[in-house]
Design goal:
This protein is α/β, with parallel strands linked by helices and 1033 residues long. The longest helix has 32 residues. It is globular. It catalyses: ATP + H2O = ADP + phosphate + H(+).
Length: 1033
Amino acid sequence: MDEGGARIRRRVRVRRRSRPSLGSVCAAPTAAELEPGDEEEEGEEKETVVGSRREKPVEVEPAQNNDSEEDMFGDYDSFAGNSFLAQVDDLEQQYMQVPQLRKHASDLTIEDLCSGSIKHNKLSITTVGNFTESKVDEHTKNQSRHKDVFIEPEPDLLYDVPSSQVLYFENLQKSSNDLGDQSTKEKDWNSSSHKTGNEELPQNSTEHHQQIDDPCSKVGTSSEENRRKSLKEHLKSAMTGNAKAQTPVFSRTKQLKETLLSEEINVAKKAIESSSDDLGPFYSLPSKVRDLYVQFKGIEKLYEWQHTCLTLNSVQERKNLIYSLPTSGGKTLVAEILMLQELLCRRRDVLMILPYVAIVQEKISALSSFGIELGFFVEEYAGSKGKFPPIKRREKKSLYIATIEKGNSLVNSLIETGRISSLGLVVVDELHMIGEGSRGAILEMTLAKVLYTSKTTQIIGMSATLNNVEDLQKFLQAEYYTSQFRPVELKEYLKINDAIYEVDSKAENGMTFSRLLNCQYSNTLKKMDPDHLVALATEVIPNYSCLVFCPTKKNCENVAEMICRFLSKQYLKHREKEKHEVIKNLKNISSGNLCPILKRTIPFGVAYHHSGLTSDERKLLEEAYSTGVLCLFTCTSTLAAGVNLPARRVILRAPYVAKEFLKRNQYKQMIGRAGRAGIDSIGESILILQEKDKQQVLELISRPLENCYSHLVQEFTKGIQTLFLSLIGLKIATNLDDIYHFMCGTFFGVQQKILLQEKSLWDITIESLRYLTEKGLLQKDTIDKPKEEIQYSFHITKLGRASFKGTIDLAYCDILYRDLKKGLEGLVLESLLHLIYLTTPYDMASHCDPDWMIYFRQKVDKDIVNRLYLSFVLYTLLKEANIWSVSEKFNMPRGYIQSLLTGAASFSSCVLHFCEELEEFWVYRALLVELTKKLTYCVKAELIPLMEVTGVLEGRAKQLYNAGYKSLTHLANANPEVLIRTIDHLSRSQAKQMVSSAKMLLHEKAEALQEEVEELLRLPSDFPSIAASSEKA
């Protein structure tokens, strides 16, 4: 095998691009031209390996010059016995005769290609060459001794054949194998039918077959000539077409890589479909996936629990699965591998649902690089982003990464267009959120619709804080896997006064004494820091990181300032230059403004982190913390459920979130941030408590996690009513019995005995349908049935359809309709103010406390006035595009203003979809498209293309624009190394993610345009001529 492989490699290297003349092809090779590898080592006489081929005369008739289409190939166009096509025909003969040897040679060739020894993209060419050399029998040896002129079928013969002809031979090979299999079966059947007591019959048959296999056989010659004639006609026709067509230019290296990757994907696909335990190179995925994880994430080996989970029978059989592990246990990696299996091997789309916009953007950035390398799209569905229904891709599949609300809209659009079966997998992170308010209700109805409408869609749910898993298992019809694995050991401590106790479930009261806090505090410091936060923090910073969770946002800021006031001056020198860069970049993204608290704390490596910061500020501070420039964050509980920012030590300032006592789930999420895999050997959490809270805290650390309960009925307008409206609008269930049957399969239906005390599920169903009918969102139809039974069915009204397509809260849908209707009477387009008012979120008005001293006082409807006030804020923001100045002008936190802007952009998108369903509001459609875009980005027009890239916010967009990257194309073609040197405070990983995201977005747009072109040029299936011909047939 090695000798054959070496011979192939030598011949690949000496190939020439120019076509050999017919004379040179027919001339016998000289001794000097023969390769040393072609001689036998034992001193035997040299043999030229030949297949079953014809004699070739030395003299060749000159080709006639003819400009006709029939003779456009010159010397190659002759179909005489000495032609090039005759030689091709001979090679095809060899393909037909010995499929087993050819298959063996093909395997050897692929093995050599995988090892990188052959740099060629035509696999079948080298296969033919290898096969030709390996076929030597006694008959061909005799021929070589008695013939004066012969041709050695070098690989160069096929080297110059167009790629379509090579593909033709490959197809011929497949058909040959099929025929071979069929004939083998027939022989076996005949053999078994005529078998006698003589056991030597198979051997005699073989010998008889070899005797018959004579090139002079008259029967073989007759059929052979007919077959060759048809082959020549077919091949000549194909070559004529190829000569007219423009030959595309391919990159051999790229084509080879794609061929190998495609081969691995096919192997993996077969492995998944089979029941074999052999899962392929990397959990049924190409080995390239493993290499990418090493390259992009530094993951070289999976944890044992991850391997166990991925090889579960339930996973192999594509059953629904819920798995639960502690925070930082590596849950996401398992989900990613399962998603890649679905995208690459099963070739179906995937939906990943995440709780927050920031996490969606983080995941988009992380997976865009994989999409570029492996050939799938990564699409963002968050805020005002996302297309409904999603673009239907021709070949590449899509990974939709969505928030809970956008995931629901996406599923609705797929059901409506009959494409829900194209969704192969739905992954839900933080599954416990199904029990949290209106967002939990939306998540529940999304999963219930997937379960009801698509039996082939797999659902994977994961969480670190699950308790009543049995209910969730019953709802999702899922298997359950759990482990207590944590890559870094976590030790929990409680601090009471100066004493620190370790949490110990085996101890009588749940804790054992650990140590006394050794700190020397001055009287001033004791008053300022009675909880010894400075002492606890300085035990780990600045060499390690620390998170301090505080009950309120204001407390975060105060604690950060207090800690810095008593820190040593030595902390100022730790990574001093980089901290100055952070301050400089904060000023740049805020038009020269900087929070005075951050200005004082960042030089010490300390900052606060809560929703009062803008997105740009939060992102910049998170990057500085991740790289170790900042070593301490004072933060609220939202950070525990948001982006992944682990620390060596986590301190809980008090067992409260705002004014409410800490829940077990919240506590587990906060302390789960302690311990960074690959960096820390241990993680610590310290909960500070007072004597008065001691008993409650002991119960907190010992009690089980809180149960998840459905909020489908509790959240009336956002829950069960919205669900019924979508069920009828999507025609999933349109009569009372079907709707009730659907409700029984929901999470609420599973828990109805626990949640319903006074009313039954049937009563609640009837009551909700009656409410929707009275509100004008549904209409009731009567269906007469035999046996004098009357059954009602429902259909959705125009207002109802607009409400569910726009995902408008049903509490406001009639108010929105009235406002838009009234707006048509005198729509003011001199400025954007009127449109902004119409798209200001209703639910934020109740949280607004206007300072009317800034504008005016008047006695009107409070909600209208509050909404108008927020409209002024948004209008001023769009004009000035500076959150800091607007924050000062209206005396509002800049974080709140940004939340208002985000909410307005999302609501504007909802109102746009609402208006698209109602013809009377046609005027709003064009207006709201532009307004939504302005609210989404709130920057100058030239920065909008750059901000479409995930992770690029206003500050970064300005930096890129000023550096010359003024469009998506510029950024997609940027060199990450150049970006690092050009853009301040940009890490290598961020630069790579940014470029990958831009490439992904560019590919999506190009693919969409290409599909649109093909759709326009495609002949309609209902075209009259086609319909007429089918009727005649």
